[in-house]
Please model this.
Amino acid sequence: MTNLIASLQAHLKTVVVVCFVLLGLIAGSSLLVDTHHAHTWVEQNLPFFWSFFGFCAAAVIIGVARWLGRSGIQASIDFYDDPNSTPCEEE
Amino acid sequence: MASSFIHPSLLLIVGALLLPFIQGPLRKPYLFFVPVLALGAVVLNTSLAGNFAIVSFLDWQLVFGRVDKLSTVFALIMALMTVIGTLYGLHVDRAGEHMAAWLYAAGSLGTIYSGDYISLFFFWEMMAFASVFLIWFRRGKQSLRVGYRYLLIHTIGGIILLAGILLRYQAVGNITFDLMDVAHPELYTWLIMIGFGLNAAMVPLHSWLPDAYSEASFNGAVFMCALTTKTAVYVLARSCAGMDILVVLGVIMALYGVIYAVMENDIRKLLAWSIVSQVGYMVAGIGIGTDLAINGAVAHAVVHILYKSLLFMGTGSVLYMTGKTKFTELGGLYSKMPATFIFTIIGCLSISAAPCFAAYVSKSMIITAGFESHLNWASWLLMFGATGTFMYNGLKLPYFLFFGTNNCNEETWQKAGDPTWNMMIAMTLGATLCVLVGMAPGFLYAMLPHAMAYTPFTAYHLVETLQLLGFAALAFFLLKKYVEPVDRICLDIDWLYRKAGQGFLWLVKGPLQWCDAAWGEAYRVVGLSSLMTVSRFWSWFDWHAIDGVVDGIARSVRALGGKVRVLQSGQIQLTLYYAFSLAAILLVTFIFFRLL
Model:
């Protein structure tokens, strides 16, 4: 297993190309699949809808998380530390 | 028939109490035997239906053994989890840690089988008070404080639940634990829902979960990730199905957990945030309340226990072997921990709802139920959250832990390696079940509370999932520098009560202590001096006035007595002389006044 991963890492460009081909195939297959069981209009009529949805959702989540982190949600690790406390030692 | 019900909690409680006396080579077989016995009892109970183990207590009938499809499926997964969790920590010598875990599991199973609110409350509190020891046994720098915070929050939740139970008893007149009238909620309905919701980590009552689960011992977290929140899901499904507010709360949980997990640097805290998010799907399903939604919530609870425990076992192995839990202190571990890597990847694919892995067969049921109930906004947001789940759990966790930049120091790198045989067997079991339920969900569907015809293996569902995962992965790798973990903590709602607690301490140590000292000094200078002056006055008054009067009377009596004593010669003729003389004087005086 570790050898396989090392080999893939050594041929990173090929792996990236294969991944893009796979993504293309997945997106293309969405044009072939029967969508009449889909629940909403956009799923039935917008080509590559879930590809678009997946990419945008991930990008939005990354953006929101980064913005919140920079806005003060992420704080120093000693934020709650009490300088007068005497913590016990971990085993 | 009634005698055939065997309560698994009883077996676990007795097993836990006897555990300290089982020493030496018998300890490990015993550790394995007791949870298997409890699982066997649950399996035997599956053939039953109805109420068993009914005990009269005061005016009430306590039902310790309500067996139906809902309780059976939850009891089975909890008992199975107890076996896997105990196996994972089999090499742990501390009997107390196993006792706490078993009592915790006994509380969960007891709650699930309870048919009344009194026995339910007893087992509910048993869970909280047993599980806190799984945090304290970590013996980390923060363990004691985290444990007390955990206990405090759960005690508050318990009080809210108890208030709801009492109000409900006053209004309804019985203690039966069943579906409430959620269409016309009373105060007690809300209180009971909040009490249960706190254990389900409903936002904003959720902060205890990431705080506590990331601080638990490596094997304690495996129990904690499975038992508390999913027991809460069970009681919510039993009592609050169809309560509209739960849809809103569930969606908020699903998204809130995602955002925090993306920001998190601690691998086990990331998984804890993931629990908040995934339980959100279950809570939303319970809120939707249709047969498909309830089945989806139950199925998702079952598979969630399988993959989440597997993930906590994987990250627990990293903690156990290296002593580290931060991305910024780990990385590149796939070559040092290859088996752990494989098991963790299976857990990651399972939670991401990848085809043929666990959550693929459950999450879509809840989302489909939302669409079918015309709650499109909820289903869209849950799909949005599902994309985030894949990103932080399916990509961020394995990438920054097993690949990415190697942040391990020399000591960490030397320590890293796959864990002990029992931990490996436990992870193998968990991974196998994750794949099995993902590929052949029929046996899971057969156990769900409502009959249904649902198949997740449609071409549309497959292509939809592959698109979602594939293009989310593309976004992740294009934008991964923005999710690079940083060595910082994430402030959450607990900021309010932790800061309030610190503020209270400051108030006590600062202004209140100053006031107390100032008052003491003022009392010493003013009060005490005044008191001494007043006391001296009263002393003088007592001596010269009160004692003077009393002593004066005493002295007068003594003087009179001395005079009278002279008259007492002891001779009868003199006594008669004085008496007759006095009588004569009185007689003459009387006649004299009458004549006047």
